[in-house]
Amino acid sequence: MKTTCSIGPPRPIPLRLYSPDSRRARGGSLRGKVNVTKPSDPNRRRLLLRLLDRVEVVGNALPHPATIFALLALAVVLLSWVSTRLGVQATHPGTGELVVARNLVSGEGIRWLFESVEKNFVRFPPLGLVLTVMVGIGVAEGSGLLTALIRFLVLRAPRRLITMAVIFAGVFSHVASEAGYVVLIPLAAAMFLALGRHPMAGLAAAFSGVSGGFGANFVITSVDPVLAGMSESAAQILDPAVTVSPAANLYFMGASALLVTAAGTWVTERIVEPRLGPYTGPLLPEPLEELGPRERRGLLWAALGLVSLVALLAVLTLPEGGLLRHPGQGLLKSAFFGGLVTAILLAFLVPGLLYGVTVGTIRSDKDVVKHMVSSMSHMATYIVLVFFAAQFVYSFSYSNLGLILAIDGAEFLRGIGLTGIPLLVGFVLLSGFINLFMGSASAKWAIMAPVFVPMFMLLGYHPALTQAVFRIGDSITNVITPMMSYFALIVTFAAKYDEKYGIGTIISTMLPYSVAFGVLWTLLMIGWMLLGLPVGPDGPLHYGAVVGGR
Questions:
Q1: Higher model confidence: residue 147 or residue 273?
Q2: Among 12, 357, 358, 344, which residue's Cα sits nearest to residue 151?
Q3: DSSP annotation of 285
């Protein structure tokens, strides 16, 4: 049965949305203790639900995620030794250099392992971003700002639009790089809990927008210039005159944003929430009350502080001679975009301080530091996960196994002789498969672009189309791969609502999104091609230098 929100008239409650002291003993998987009426005949259950249940049970039966990453790191070490003995290698399509599997058991490999443990941990990309942003979030949360904001949104926003709004916000969050993982996902889970809905449904909805919709948006984001630059370099292998604009995929990205929002909303409300059932975990929702006069005044000051901060950053960034502009560099290469994490930190810190001072939850600098320390203390599990995840990711990279897999996969797809739409569909599947092993979009495209961009040009397809098709495959499996840099963080967020939630819970919950996005996004691409629509302002479908007149 579908979970619906039914919030009656406002009733007085404490400031918190939930009571941390309200605990219930609960064990088992996500569905283990929910009040869901099960049919007497198991065969009558939908195949999808049985499959998802099985994925969850198997996944959660695995060891702790930190242990899994440690075991995977050991497996990479052994696999590197086997691959070396077998002579596994591939030729890099961009440089022509021979890529050979590197043995982590050799003297050089062992020395690298011994010297790199600390470096792997410290340089793991999400670690610094997450901890930096959490400093500001800690103040915003500790002061009561986020709680008041959630209450305001929950009591004012149309109930039927909440899911859609969360997913759309996730898609749009790419303008702030990858901050949506840190900010929006836990916020959505808390909002759903406040509405009396399952917090995992909110987490899943936000995760689907932020990660599953990575190749969709209405505006140019920081990843677009990176991918366009690689596409242009790859295209110039064949034709030095070809250029690829950062806006080359803008039209298709906008349509994709609408598709991801609609599909994600449908999956959340028709598949995910009915499967989750009512939430009976340790954090229990309480009735909501209207904001008091002091809280409304605090929100007003917080809003004014945020607007003032945005205005200040705009003055420092937009003019040619702005203090945050590097001389002779464009807007996208300014210090603002380079230090976007700092801007996000301030965007939570400043409003949080103003709100706390207004309502009286911050009375001195000691309160500010206390809130920061509290937020960091909740990240202990994530830090441990990151330590082992970093060892696995960088060991896998050092061994060259991921690079060889990507090269061989690309060569296989080219070698089977597919053409036209089947070729592009195959390319989507290949990109999605490789994404299960390589989390970085830029790293994958650096490998795949020199192969597929010239190949597709020879078949008459413009590099902008090839790039757009790649982004579909790169997005659809983001939500189900532990290789995604922020996957460990998502597991940590989920465990807040029940310590039994693990990798299996996340994968089984997100798998319907991955399937839905894959099918519908591919159909959108096929329809787009059949209609002959450009994928962007400077993104025609066809490359006319080879296929004349098209």
A1: 273
A2: 12
A3: E
Phi, psi of 485 (to 5 degrees): -55, -35
Does the pLDDT at position 550 exceed 50?
Answer: no
Tokens of 55: 């994925």
| Lowest mean per-residue pLDDT among 164-168, 200-204, 330-334 | 330-334
Both tokens of residue 277? 């059932």
What backbone phi and psi angles, to 5 degrees, belong to 323? -65, -25
Where residue 460 falls (left for φ over 0; alpha for ψ -120 to 50; beta otherwise) is left
pLDDT(439) > 50: yes
Span 107-115, average pLDDT: 93
What is the percent of the chain where pLDDT is above 70? 81
Q: State residue 325 phi and psi, 5-degree precision.
A: -100, 130
pTM value is: 0.67
Per DSSP, what are the bridge partners of residue 461?
542
Measure the CA–CA gap between 512 and 51, rounded to whole angstroms.
11
Distance (Å, whole) CA 291 – CA 302: 15
35-94 pLDDT tens trace? 333 434 445 446 666 666 666 666 666 677 778 778 888 998 999 999 999 998 888 766
**C-beta of residue 17 within 8 angstroms of C-beta of residue 151:** yes
At residue 161, φ and ψ (nearest 5 deg) are -100, -5
Contact 205, 170 (CB under 8 A): yes
Query: Would you say residue 15 lies in a domain?
Result: no
Owner of token pair 């090839």: 466
Q: How far apart are CA 276 and CA 9, in angstroms?
A: 26
Give Cα 322 to chain centroid, integer Å: 32
Tokens 């500790």 correspond to 142
Give Rg (Cα) of the chain: 24
Q: Does any domain span residue 538?
A: no
pLDDT at 471 over 50: yes
E-strand ranges in 12-54 read: 18-19
Residue 388, φ and ψ in degrees, nearest 5 = -75, -35
Distances (CA, A) of 179 to 166, 190, 319, 334, 374: 15, 17, 25, 18, 20
3-state helix, strand, coil in the chain (%, to 5): 65, 5, 30
- Residues 240-266: tens digit of each pLDDT: 888 888 788 989 999 999 999 999 999
DSSP labels for 24-35?
----SSTTSSS-
Token pair recorded at residue 123: 């340089």
Please give the angle made by the CA atoms of 70, 71 and 77, to the nearest 5 degrees. 95
End-to-end C-alpha distance for the chain, whole angstroms: 52
Mean per-residue pLDDT, 310-335? 86
Residue at 297: amino acid letter: R
For residues 179 and 426, give the distance between their C-alpha atoms in angstroms, rounded to a whole number.
31
Domains held by the chain: number: 1
In a domain? residue 394: yes
Question: Which of 1-15, 282-296, 435-449, 484-498 tops mean pLDDT?
Answer: 484-498
* Residue 17 belongs to a domain: no
Burial 401-434 (b: 16+ CB within 10 A, else e): bbbbbbbebbeebbeeeeeeeebbbbbbbbbbeb
Looking at every residue in the chain, the average pLDDT score rounds to 80
